[in-house]
Amino acid sequence: IYIGRCIGVPGDTLFIDSLFSVISPEVQFNPDKKRLYAYPVDKENLITLLMHTLSIDDDGLMGSSDSTHVRSFSRYEYYLLEQAINGNNWIQPLAGKKDTELRPLIVPGKGKFVRVHPWNITLLRNTLVMHEGKQAEIKNDTLYVDGKPTQHCYFTKDYYWVGANNTINLTDSRLFGFVPQDHLIGKASLVWFSKEKDTGLFDGYRWNRFFRTVK
């Protein structure tokens, strides 16, 4: 069972990047958007202590090597950490593309056609096979449905695009694609329990999140 925010409903056109993250002018420059940062392995205990002191949620390691660990922080969280280490600069943002090419992604609806593009062909093929009961395959960059090449896909169900709050961990539609309506089982309304990972029986509780309504 996954909990996520509904980002797209049937018929919506979303703008996505190469990782199928939904981008909008509001989201693209959102200071709460998570980015990847690297730091020396021997600073792990200090990072963990600072995160706890600054009330920064621990999303876990996003990567590691013999000398480096990688975590995700928002710009504000990174600012707090920089201030705490007095600007010593051993936490470094990972280099990435400054300009992201966006592509339109139409969320399928019941009785609707969706045009096939290079950036959605695999997603449409998977949806047809898993949820529409069709025989679909990609050959020479062309989508074949029930043995016939097609440039438009017809859908018999309503679908949704859901997103997790964490923009790095892919536990949302970036991982499992369009979600058919018959897979939606309810709506989260209340956080009744919240605890940090890898903490003991008597610590790590996020008391300020207990019994908070989900907005």
Automatic annotation (TrEMBL):
<dbReference type="GO" id="GO:0004252">
    <property type="term" value="F:serine-type endopeptidase activity"/>
</dbReference>
<protein>
    <submittedName>
        <fullName>S26 family signal peptidase</fullName>
    </submittedName>
</protein>
<dbReference type="InterPro" id="IPR019533">
    <property type="entry name" value="Peptidase_S26"/>
</dbReference>
<dbReference type="InterPro" id="IPR036286">
    <property type="entry name" value="LexA/Signal_pep-like_sf"/>
</dbReference>
<feature type="domain" description="Peptidase S26">
    <location>
        <begin position="156"/>
        <end position="193"/>
    </location>
</feature>
<dbReference type="Pfam" id="PF10502">
    <property type="entry name" value="Peptidase_S26"/>
</dbReference>
<dbReference type="GO" id="GO:0006465">
    <property type="term" value="P:signal peptide processing"/>
</dbReference>
